[in-house]
Each structure stands twice: as C-alpha cells, then as structure tokens.
Amino acid sequence: MLTGEESLLYSARLRLRAAPGAAQARARELMAELGLRHVAHSRVASVSGGERRRVSIGVDLVHDPAVLLLDEPTSGLDSGSALHIVKMLRDMATAHGKTVVLTIHQPGFRILELLDRVVLLADGAVRHHGSLPFLEARLAGSGHSIPAHVNVLEYAMETIDTLKPDVVIATALTYQDVAAPVPSPSSSSARRAAYANSAAAEVCILSGRFVKTVLRTPQLFAARMGMRESMRWSNLGVMLGFVVGYRVLCFVFLWYRCHRMRR
C-alpha cells in the first residue's frame, strides 16, 4: 500500500548509513533514474506491471551494489515492457560500472543484442558461456545450420544436447571453492558495523511503515486480524497498544541518541 517513492525511501533508510534527508534524496534520485518520477506518489498496486518491476529493482539498488542479481525480471511483461527493463539495466550497468546477472526465458532478438554474455545450462552443466557470435560459431562447428529468421538462442535451446559441456568452466570451480566457509566477524563491534542501523532503529523504521499501511487500509488490517464479534475489542486493544508502543519506542530511541550525543 506504499507509493513508489515510499518503497524506495524505506529501503534506503534500512540499508544506508545516512540521515533521513539523505535517504530521501537517494530515493528521489533513483526514481528519476528509473523513469518513475511520474508515479512517485502513486501506490505501487495501481501502476503498470513494468513500473512495478522497476520499483522492485530500485528497492535493491538504493545501496548502489556492484553486482545485481535478478531472477526473471521480464517475466509476465509484454515485449515492449521487457525490452524497456533490459535497456534500463544495460544503461545502468554501462553508466555506473555495475555487473548485472539475470535469468531470462525465451528473450527476443532485440533483448539478446543487449546482453554481453549468455550462459546456457542443461543437466547441471554449462553448455555455453560467451557472446552470441561465439554461440553461433559453436553451433556451426557442431554441424548445425541455423535456419533463416530463427533466433540463434532459440535454435540453440532446441539443439542444446548436441553442445558439449564447457570443460574450462566446469573445472574452474571445485566443491571446496564453492563450499569454503566465510569468516564471521569476531567482535561485537565488527558485527554492528556490518549493519547500517541498530536493531532499535530498524524496529522503528519497520513499525512506522506498518502503521502507515494500517492507517491507509484499516479494512484490510481488520480482515487479517479476524474481527469476529467475540474478538473485536481484544483485537482493537492489540492495534491501539501497538500504535502507543511504537510512539513510546521512538521516544526512547530519540532520548537515547540525544543522551549519547551529549556524552
């Protein structure tokens, strides 16, 4: 029930070590970059499918990651919206030096032209990793002739069993490399440094988002709480207690921050 800008704002407040004003500026900057300025104050549920997909991508872009992993970002979209999404990702990767890895099913030819590398997987093995011209050369080397007006990747999927697994890639990573344990922070200060906010700050942010959602859709909240006749007053007490508790928690958090700043 949030607007597009609010969705990015809450993500920025949770992921960035910045003041609320800086998080707001980052959310607005990302809305403009994603071409969503015209729906900044519209609820996400009321916008088009392509715009909703861009909002969901923006939620994971607020902290400016070097690598972006996307699972079927074009699924359920028409060809025009899918092409717009991939173009946006391509431009973003080029402008900001990001690596974008995505899974996609049956992409059109115009989408394929935007991809630098294509990875084909079959039977737990990598059958191809490289550019489209390299894939076409491998198919020709295997004795295949690509019919006219046929997508190279589509034809490769039909004849993927004839492509030998890429031995170089298959042997590049061993089980020990993949399963190597990641060292965990040893001290409590190092663990706190791994998060942008403290636990109390995250509770305040998420509680504020929950209260805003409840105030905008009280009927939906009542339905979820199961407002039966026998539970009406108890559920109402739970909701009022949560709102009051949220205010008290925010007051305690602000008092604690001011107390630490004075010291």
Automatic annotation (TrEMBL):
Keyword Transmembrane helix: yes
GO cellular component: membrane
Membrane topology type: Multi-pass membrane protein
Record-linked InterPro entries: ABC_transporter-like_ATP-bd, ABCG_transporters, P-loop_NTPase
Pfam families: ABC_tran (PF00005)
Predominant localisation class: membrane
Location relative to the cell: Membrane
Protein name (record): ABC transporter G family member 10
Species of provenance: Aegilops tauschii (Tausch's goatgrass)
